[in-house]
Amino acid sequence: MTTSTQAPRRTRIQQEKRELILEAALEVFSTNGFRGSTIDQIAEAAGMSKPNLLYYFRRKEDIHETLMERLLETWLAPLRELDDIGDPMTELRSYIRRKLEMARDFPRESRLFANEILQGAPRIMPLLAGELKTLVDEKAAVIKGWMRAGKIARTDPWHLIFSIWATTQHYADFDVQVRAVLGPNRGGDGRFEDAARFLEQLFLDGLKPKN
Amino acid sequence: MTTSTQAPRRTRIQQEKRELILEAALEVFSTNGFRGSTIDQIAEAAGMSKPNLLYYFRRKEDIHETLMERLLETWLAPLRELDDIGDPMTELRSYIRRKLEMARDFPRESRLFANEILQGAPRIMPLLAGELKTLVDEKAAVIKGWMRAGKIARTDPWHLIFSIWATTQHYADFDVQVRAVLGPNRGGDGRFEDAARFLEQLFLDGLKPKN
DNA sequence: CTAACGTTTGTCCAATCGGTCAAAAATTTG
DNA sequence: CAAATTTTTGACCGATTGGACAAACGTTAG
């Protein structure tokens, strides 16, 4: 008789299969949205039958929930790293770079998150108003300190963070549009380096010509 | 006798009911996505029965298509207005302002568009690679002219346009997150003015402190 | 071996989906 | 008025959906 524990005890096969399902679900959910995705699609992408998938996750929503929980931590990691020590301008620049790298390397995660927010964040609203807000407020205070010390120009730290999120995630969420507009020549792999160069200049000096 | 139009001749009732349906569909599609929305939802929001709705639009996709066609024109209008005459910096500033106003006044349109792009733009890909790319290329040339004339700093015009789209539309597409992070105090109606102030400064001067 | 347990599958179900259709109701036309 | 046309509705259909379930299969410990 196996003793029951509070946290679910899992066999090796369960661990592996659950990972397989989550990987497949990330692919499917991020391109079709939650309601636009079917269990069959996920099961096929994971290489198993639907009832078999439902053996590991009893409901479609459970998969999505597990995915979102993991996602948030990964997603906020770069902001957590924003540190008070070190040169402010350098800190911000590397935050932007890290976020852009995430857009390049984890576009599915970005789209999954965007999908959730777009539809009103029904499943993660508490996290936004709780954990996320706390973190952003904390980092906004750090940035405010830099402004008071004259290390960076005075602006609204919250909107500064928003603008970094927006500009970097754009290259994941709107990738199709970016590539379509840049065309076959400039829409290749180099687009992220071009974006990095542009964003660095934008956030550093803006557009006003130096005379 | 009412004046005839070139293609589909429509009665007064048809015109009105089609408008009613499109308005309802905009609401439903923009919050649930295409596959996440049902004809019944749209019909209910429009105050009519499903078969009655299908009398005006034979397929669910027809509604979405009509919506997207209209949307794109409205959506690109601000960029079309970006004009070669007038002070470059002023032109860019008012483009940003207009885009931000659209995010404030037409968030549903923005979300509908974002939903479509997020899912790979299956229905408007030709428009992106055609009409949109042409327009952006054209405006990018204008901006390049400004750069050559030393009116604004030299950067990548395409990524500049992307960054304007990203930062402004963020306030429509990610509105839930923005309000959650700003909290009850700063997340009210003033958030768009704060955003306008911040974006103006960002695009003008960047973050480097003026010494 | 066998018993126990973990895993997989085929079958099935109720609900919902997009869409059809004929007939009723309302409106317009002569 | 009545006839013709447009609009609305209830009933219905096949396909797909999320999910249940028991039986079969595989694996391992004694």
How would you sum up this structure, described in words?
2 copies of one chain form a homodimer. Chain A is mainly alpha-helical and 211 residues long. Chain A has 2 domains: 10-58, Homeodomain-like (Arc Repressor Mutant, subunit A, Orthogonal Bundle), CATH 1.10.10.60; 61-205, Tetracycline Repressor, domain 2 (Orthogonal Bundle), CATH 1.10.357.10. In chain A, 74% of the residues lie in helices and 0% in strands. Chain A has 10 helices and no strands. Chain A has helices at 12-32, 39-46, 50-56, 60-81, 88-105, 107-118, 125-148, 157-173, 175-186, 191-205. The longest helix of chain A has 24 residues, at 125-148. In chain A, 40% of the residues are buried. Residues 1-7 of chain A have low confidence and may be disordered. At the A-B interface, helix 6, helix 7, helix 8, helix 9 and helix 10 of A face helix 6, helix 7, helix 8, helix 9 and helix 10 of B. The first copy, chain A, binds a DNA duplex (30 and 30 nucleotides) through helix 1 and helix 3.
SSE map:
Two copies of one chain form a homodimer.
Chain A: H1 12-32, H2 39-46, H3 50-56, H4 60-81, H5 88-105, H6 107-118, H7 125-148, H8 157-173, H9 175-186, H10 191-205
Helix pairs in contact in A: 1-2, 1-4, 1-6, 4-5, 4-6, 5-8, 5-10, 6-8
Chain A binds a DNA duplex (30 and 30 nucleotides) through residues 2, 11, 13-14, 17, 38-40, 48-52, 54-55, 58-60.
